[in-house]
Design brief:
Blueprint lengths: L2 H15 L1 H12 L17 H29 L6 H4 L10 H9 L3
Helix pairs in contact: 1-3, 2-3
């Protein structure tokens, strides 16, 4: 499996799992749903971590489709970059950021 497809799979799994803390937070703050809760939503305040987890989940859902489209189109046309495989993490940032910028800007 190519690296891009592997990270797409991991992103989809993470997006699918991010709703679990939200549900746990809703149940712990408001209790289990009752039939009358379906007519009007409960208005009890939620803890900040539940709101943050909900925003993180929504962000992942919104960004999964464009990311998947780019990865799958690249896979369909046969474009695969060796960069994700060959480049070690933060290889371009060894040393100070100033040194990286000055060495890139100065002709050798």
């Amino acid at each position: 499996m190519k690296t891009e497809l592997f990270y797409l799979l991991l992103s989809a799994i993470l997006t699918g799992l991010l709703w679990i803390p939200v549900v746990i937070g809703y149940v712990s703050a408001r209790g289990p749903l009752k039939p009358e809760d379906y007519k009007s939503a409960p208005t009890a305040p939620l803890p900040d971590w539940v709101n943050r987890a909900n925003r993180a989940h929504l962000n992942a859902v919104e960004n999964l489709a464009p990311f998947a489209a780019v990865v799958l189109i690249g896979h369909a046309i046969g474009h695969s970059s060796a960069l994700p495989v060959s480049a070690p993490p933060s290889s371009s940032m060894r040393g100070s950021p100033t040194r990286c910028f000055t060495s890139a800007a100065s002709p050798s």
